[in-house]
Amino acid sequence: MKSETIGFVGVGRMGANMARRLRDVGYSITSIYDTNRAVAESLAKELGAAAPTSVAEVSRSAQVIFTVVTDDAAMRAIYFREPGLFSHAAGRLFINCPTISPAVHIEVTKRGAELGAAVVEAPMASSMTHAREGKLYMMIAGSQTDCKRAEPILKDLTVSLRYIGGPGKAAELKALVNMVMNINTAGLAEALGLADALGLDLKMVTEVFAQAGANSRVLETDGPDMLDREHSTFFAAAHAAKDSGIALELAREEGLHLPLLEASKAQYDEMVRFGLGELDKSGISELTFKSRRPAKPI
User: Fold this and answer.
1) pTM confidence score
2) CA atoms within 13 A on the CB side of 290
3) Are residues 128 and 221 in the same domain?
Protein backbone atom coordinates (compact mmCIF):
# COMPACT_ATOMS: atom_id res chain seq x y z
CA MET A 1 0.00 0.00 0.00
CA LYS A 2 1.09 3.58 -0.62
CA SER A 3 1.80 5.64 2.45
CA GLU A 4 -0.87 8.36 2.23
CA THR A 5 -4.32 7.66 3.63
CA ILE A 6 -7.14 9.25 1.65
CA GLY A 7 -10.67 10.41 2.41
CA PHE A 8 -13.39 11.60 0.05
CA VAL A 9 -16.17 14.13 0.51
CA GLY A 10 -18.64 13.92 -2.36
CA VAL A 11 -18.86 10.61 -4.18
CA GLY A 12 -21.15 11.17 -7.12
CA ARG A 13 -20.17 9.93 -10.54
CA MET A 14 -16.71 11.55 -10.55
CA GLY A 15 -15.77 11.27 -6.89
CA ALA A 16 -16.69 7.60 -6.63
CA ASN A 17 -14.63 6.64 -9.66
CA MET A 18 -11.66 8.67 -8.45
CA ALA A 19 -11.82 6.81 -5.13
CA ARG A 20 -11.99 3.46 -6.92
CA ARG A 21 -9.01 4.37 -9.08
CA LEU A 22 -6.87 5.40 -6.12
CA ARG A 23 -7.76 2.23 -4.25
CA ASP A 24 -6.80 0.17 -7.29
CA VAL A 25 -3.33 1.76 -7.50
CA GLY A 26 -2.56 1.09 -3.85
CA TYR A 27 -3.92 3.87 -1.66
CA SER A 28 -5.84 3.20 1.53
CA ILE A 29 -9.24 4.90 1.35
CA THR A 30 -10.11 5.44 4.99
CA SER A 31 -13.42 7.31 4.87
CA ILE A 32 -16.21 8.27 2.49
CA TYR A 33 -18.74 11.06 3.10
CA ASP A 34 -21.68 12.10 0.97
CA THR A 35 -24.94 13.84 1.79
CA ASN A 36 -26.58 10.76 0.24
CA ARG A 37 -25.91 8.30 3.05
CA ALA A 38 -26.85 5.24 1.00
CA VAL A 39 -24.34 6.15 -1.71
CA ALA A 40 -21.58 6.78 0.85
CA GLU A 41 -22.23 3.55 2.72
CA SER A 42 -22.33 1.47 -0.46
CA LEU A 43 -19.01 2.83 -1.75
CA ALA A 44 -17.39 2.61 1.69
CA LYS A 45 -18.33 -1.06 1.87
CA GLU A 46 -16.91 -1.63 -1.60
CA LEU A 47 -13.61 0.08 -0.74
CA GLY A 48 -13.26 -1.16 2.82
CA ALA A 49 -13.64 2.35 4.26
CA ALA A 50 -15.72 3.98 6.97
CA ALA A 51 -18.77 6.11 6.14
CA PRO A 52 -18.85 8.72 8.91
CA THR A 53 -21.79 11.05 9.48
CA SER A 54 -19.54 14.10 9.82
CA VAL A 55 -17.00 15.56 7.40
CA ALA A 56 -14.77 16.27 10.41
CA GLU A 57 -14.29 12.52 10.77
CA VAL A 58 -12.98 12.35 7.20
CA SER A 59 -10.18 14.81 7.91
CA ARG A 60 -9.49 13.17 11.25
CA SER A 61 -8.94 9.78 9.63
CA ALA A 62 -7.03 10.77 6.46
CA GLN A 63 -3.87 12.63 5.52
CA VAL A 64 -5.23 13.64 2.11
CA ILE A 65 -8.83 14.70 1.56
CA PHE A 66 -10.47 15.02 -1.85
CA THR A 67 -13.63 17.08 -2.22
CA VAL A 68 -15.95 16.73 -5.22
CA VAL A 69 -19.07 18.69 -4.25
CA THR A 70 -21.69 20.48 -6.32
CA ASP A 71 -21.52 24.23 -5.78
CA ASP A 72 -20.34 27.20 -3.71
CA ALA A 73 -22.85 26.58 -0.91
CA ALA A 74 -21.82 22.93 -0.55
CA MET A 75 -18.14 23.89 -0.52
CA ARG A 76 -18.62 26.48 2.21
CA ALA A 77 -20.73 24.04 4.22
CA ILE A 78 -18.13 21.27 4.33
CA TYR A 79 -15.35 23.65 5.33
CA PHE A 80 -17.00 26.33 7.45
CA ARG A 81 -20.07 24.73 9.04
CA GLU A 82 -18.98 23.17 12.31
CA PRO A 83 -17.80 20.51 12.69
CA GLY A 84 -16.16 20.98 9.29
CA LEU A 85 -13.24 19.56 7.38
CA PHE A 86 -10.91 22.12 8.93
CA SER A 87 -11.64 20.67 12.38
CA HIS A 88 -8.52 18.60 11.61
CA ALA A 89 -6.41 20.79 9.36
CA ALA A 90 -2.77 21.05 10.42
CA GLY A 91 -0.47 19.01 8.21
CA ARG A 92 -3.22 17.68 6.00
CA LEU A 93 -3.57 18.09 2.24
CA PHE A 94 -6.97 19.11 0.86
CA ILE A 95 -7.51 18.65 -2.88
CA ASN A 96 -10.62 20.47 -4.05
CA CYS A 97 -11.99 19.30 -7.41
CA PRO A 98 -15.40 21.04 -7.74
CA THR A 99 -16.19 23.54 -10.46
CA ILE A 100 -17.12 26.48 -8.25
CA SER A 101 -16.48 30.21 -8.05
CA PRO A 102 -12.81 31.19 -7.90
CA ALA A 103 -13.60 33.40 -4.90
CA VAL A 104 -14.70 30.39 -2.85
CA HIS A 105 -11.55 28.46 -3.72
CA ILE A 106 -9.52 31.48 -2.59
CA GLU A 107 -11.52 31.71 0.64
CA VAL A 108 -10.94 28.04 1.46
CA THR A 109 -7.24 28.19 0.54
CA LYS A 110 -6.67 31.25 2.74
CA ARG A 111 -8.35 29.67 5.76
CA GLY A 112 -6.48 26.41 5.26
CA ALA A 113 -3.14 28.22 5.21
CA GLU A 114 -4.04 29.97 8.47
CA LEU A 115 -4.66 26.56 10.05
CA GLY A 116 -1.47 24.94 8.73
CA ALA A 117 -3.11 22.91 5.96
CA ALA A 118 -2.04 22.52 2.34
CA VAL A 119 -4.89 23.34 -0.05
CA VAL A 120 -4.92 22.73 -3.81
CA GLU A 121 -7.70 23.38 -6.30
CA ALA A 122 -7.86 20.73 -9.00
CA PRO A 123 -10.85 21.03 -11.35
CA MET A 124 -11.17 18.37 -14.03
CA ALA A 125 -12.01 18.53 -17.72
CA SER A 126 -12.86 14.89 -18.33
CA SER A 127 -15.57 12.26 -17.88
CA MET A 128 -16.34 9.71 -15.18
CA THR A 129 -14.85 6.98 -17.42
CA HIS A 130 -11.57 8.89 -17.45
CA ALA A 131 -11.76 9.15 -13.65
CA ARG A 132 -12.11 5.38 -13.32
CA GLU A 133 -9.21 4.71 -15.67
CA GLY A 134 -6.83 7.34 -14.27
CA LYS A 135 -6.99 9.38 -17.49
CA LEU A 136 -8.27 12.71 -16.21
CA TYR A 137 -7.13 16.07 -17.56
CA MET A 138 -6.65 18.18 -14.46
CA MET A 139 -5.74 21.81 -13.87
CA ILE A 140 -4.21 22.69 -10.51
CA ALA A 141 -3.70 25.95 -8.66
CA GLY A 142 -2.44 27.11 -5.30
CA SER A 143 0.99 27.60 -3.85
CA GLN A 144 3.65 25.77 -5.81
CA THR A 145 4.74 24.01 -2.62
CA ASP A 146 1.25 22.62 -2.00
CA CYS A 147 0.83 21.63 -5.63
CA LYS A 148 4.16 19.79 -5.60
CA ARG A 149 2.96 17.84 -2.56
CA ALA A 150 -0.26 16.87 -4.36
CA GLU A 151 1.42 16.00 -7.65
CA PRO A 152 2.36 12.32 -7.01
CA ILE A 153 -1.20 11.45 -6.02
CA LEU A 154 -2.76 13.42 -8.85
CA LYS A 155 -0.49 11.75 -11.39
CA ASP A 156 -2.17 8.46 -10.45
CA LEU A 157 -5.49 10.00 -11.58
CA THR A 158 -4.41 11.85 -14.71
CA VAL A 159 -2.86 11.67 -18.14
CA SER A 160 -2.20 15.40 -18.02
CA LEU A 161 -1.68 17.66 -15.03
CA ARG A 162 -1.18 21.37 -15.64
CA TYR A 163 -0.24 24.03 -13.10
CA ILE A 164 -2.21 27.21 -13.82
CA GLY A 165 -1.18 29.63 -11.08
CA GLY A 166 -2.12 30.86 -7.64
CA PRO A 167 -5.42 30.27 -5.81
CA GLY A 168 -8.48 30.80 -7.98
CA LYS A 169 -6.69 30.58 -11.32
CA ALA A 170 -7.56 26.97 -12.16
CA ALA A 171 -11.17 27.73 -11.27
CA GLU A 172 -11.17 30.69 -13.64
CA LEU A 173 -9.82 28.60 -16.49
CA LYS A 174 -12.24 25.73 -15.78
CA ALA A 175 -15.13 28.21 -15.99
CA LEU A 176 -13.88 29.22 -19.44
CA VAL A 177 -13.51 25.60 -20.58
CA ASN A 178 -17.11 24.87 -19.61
CA MET A 179 -18.30 28.16 -21.04
CA VAL A 180 -17.00 27.23 -24.51
CA MET A 181 -18.28 23.65 -24.22
CA ASN A 182 -21.75 24.83 -23.20
CA ILE A 183 -21.96 27.42 -25.99
CA ASN A 184 -20.88 24.80 -28.53
CA THR A 185 -23.48 22.33 -27.27
CA ALA A 186 -26.25 24.93 -27.44
CA GLY A 187 -25.18 25.94 -30.95
CA LEU A 188 -25.15 22.36 -32.19
CA ALA A 189 -28.63 21.76 -30.75
CA GLU A 190 -29.97 24.82 -32.56
CA ALA A 191 -28.40 23.79 -35.87
CA LEU A 192 -29.81 20.27 -35.65
CA GLY A 193 -33.20 21.59 -34.61
CA LEU A 194 -33.26 23.88 -37.63
CA ALA A 195 -32.02 21.10 -39.93
CA ASP A 196 -34.85 18.89 -38.67
CA ALA A 197 -37.41 21.64 -39.33
CA LEU A 198 -36.04 22.02 -42.87
CA GLY A 199 -36.51 18.31 -43.51
CA LEU A 200 -32.82 17.52 -43.93
CA ASP A 201 -31.47 14.08 -43.14
CA LEU A 202 -29.86 14.56 -39.75
CA LYS A 203 -27.30 11.78 -40.09
CA MET A 204 -26.14 13.35 -43.34
CA VAL A 205 -26.05 16.78 -41.67
CA THR A 206 -23.74 15.56 -38.89
CA GLU A 207 -21.48 13.84 -41.44
CA VAL A 208 -21.14 17.10 -43.36
CA PHE A 209 -20.49 19.04 -40.13
CA ALA A 210 -17.69 16.61 -39.28
CA GLN A 211 -15.91 17.45 -42.55
CA ALA A 212 -16.43 21.21 -42.38
CA GLY A 213 -15.93 24.18 -40.10
CA ALA A 214 -18.86 23.01 -37.97
CA ASN A 215 -16.79 20.11 -36.65
CA SER A 216 -16.12 20.04 -32.92
CA ARG A 217 -15.55 17.76 -29.97
CA VAL A 218 -19.17 18.41 -28.98
CA LEU A 219 -20.36 17.13 -32.37
CA GLU A 220 -18.58 13.85 -31.61
CA THR A 221 -19.78 13.47 -28.02
CA ASP A 222 -23.28 15.02 -28.08
CA GLY A 223 -24.36 14.87 -31.73
CA PRO A 224 -25.41 11.19 -31.76
CA ASP A 225 -27.20 11.60 -28.43
CA MET A 226 -29.18 14.56 -29.75
CA LEU A 227 -30.30 12.53 -32.77
CA ASP A 228 -31.18 9.46 -30.68
CA ARG A 229 -32.66 11.45 -27.76
CA GLU A 230 -30.28 9.53 -25.50
CA HIS A 231 -29.54 11.91 -22.66
CA SER A 232 -28.06 9.67 -19.97
CA THR A 233 -26.22 12.02 -17.69
CA PHE A 234 -22.49 12.50 -18.05
CA PHE A 235 -22.63 16.26 -17.46
CA ALA A 236 -25.99 17.47 -16.21
CA ALA A 237 -27.71 20.49 -17.73
CA ALA A 238 -28.12 21.92 -14.22
CA HIS A 239 -24.33 21.89 -13.88
CA ALA A 240 -24.01 23.55 -17.27
CA ALA A 241 -26.31 26.33 -16.05
CA LYS A 242 -24.31 26.71 -12.85
CA ASP A 243 -20.93 26.74 -14.59
CA SER A 244 -22.08 29.19 -17.25
CA GLY A 245 -23.23 31.39 -14.39
CA ILE A 246 -19.74 31.35 -12.88
CA ALA A 247 -18.23 32.49 -16.18
CA LEU A 248 -20.92 35.13 -16.59
CA GLU A 249 -20.21 36.56 -13.15
CA LEU A 250 -16.49 36.72 -13.95
CA ALA A 251 -17.29 38.58 -17.17
CA ARG A 252 -19.48 41.07 -15.34
CA GLU A 253 -16.75 41.67 -12.77
CA GLU A 254 -14.45 42.58 -15.65
CA GLY A 255 -17.05 44.83 -17.29
CA LEU A 256 -17.48 42.53 -20.30
CA HIS A 257 -20.73 41.91 -22.18
CA LEU A 258 -20.69 38.36 -23.60
CA PRO A 259 -23.99 37.81 -25.42
CA LEU A 260 -23.30 34.22 -26.51
CA LEU A 261 -22.58 33.25 -22.92
CA GLU A 262 -25.73 35.01 -21.73
CA ALA A 263 -27.86 33.29 -24.36
CA SER A 264 -26.49 29.79 -23.72
CA LYS A 265 -26.90 30.17 -19.96
CA ALA A 266 -30.51 31.21 -20.54
CA GLN A 267 -31.07 27.98 -22.50
CA TYR A 268 -29.68 25.79 -19.70
CA ASP A 269 -31.73 27.75 -17.18
CA GLU A 270 -34.73 27.00 -19.39
CA MET A 271 -33.94 23.28 -19.20
CA VAL A 272 -33.98 23.49 -15.42
CA ARG A 273 -37.26 25.43 -15.53
CA PHE A 274 -38.82 22.73 -17.71
CA GLY A 275 -37.68 19.99 -15.33
CA LEU A 276 -34.86 18.79 -17.61
CA GLY A 277 -31.94 19.86 -15.45
CA GLU A 278 -30.88 16.32 -14.55
CA LEU A 279 -30.60 15.30 -18.20
CA ASP A 280 -27.19 15.42 -19.84
CA LYS A 281 -26.39 18.77 -21.45
CA SER A 282 -27.12 17.12 -24.81
CA GLY A 283 -30.75 17.31 -23.71
CA ILE A 284 -30.73 20.98 -24.70
CA SER A 285 -31.85 19.63 -28.09
CA GLU A 286 -35.20 18.90 -26.44
CA LEU A 287 -35.75 22.66 -26.52
CA THR A 288 -34.67 23.25 -30.13
CA PHE A 289 -36.53 20.56 -32.09
CA LYS A 290 -40.08 21.61 -32.95
CA SER A 291 -41.53 18.22 -32.12
CA ARG A 292 -39.77 17.84 -28.78
CA ARG A 293 -40.18 21.04 -26.79
CA PRO A 294 -42.07 20.44 -23.54
CA ALA A 295 -45.53 21.97 -23.32
CA LYS A 296 -44.92 23.90 -20.11
CA PRO A 297 -42.45 24.27 -17.25
CA ILE A 298 -42.69 22.01 -14.23
Assistant:
1) 0.94
2) 6
3) no
Please give the residue range of the domain that contains residue 46.
5-166
> What sign for the dihedral angle of Cα 36, 42, 46, 48?
positive
pLDDT tens column, 268-279? 999 999 999 999
| CATH code at position 59 | 3.40.50.720
pLDDT at 127 over 90: no
DSSP letter for each residue of 183-225: HHHHHHHHHHHHHHHTT--HHHHHHHHHTSTT--HHHHHHHHH
CB 145 within 8 A of CB 93: no
What are φ and ψ of residue 236, in 5° steps? -65, 145
Where a domain ends, among 135, 166, 197? 166
State which amino acid sits at residue 265: K
Return d(Cα 141, Cα 133) in angstroms, integer: 23
Query: What kind and span of H or E run contains 179?
Result: helix 169-197
> How many structural domains compose the chain?
2
Distance CA 95, CA 158 (A): 14
pLDDT band at 298 (very low <50, low <70, confident <90, very high): low
Residue 137: pLDDT band with limits 50, 70, 90: very high
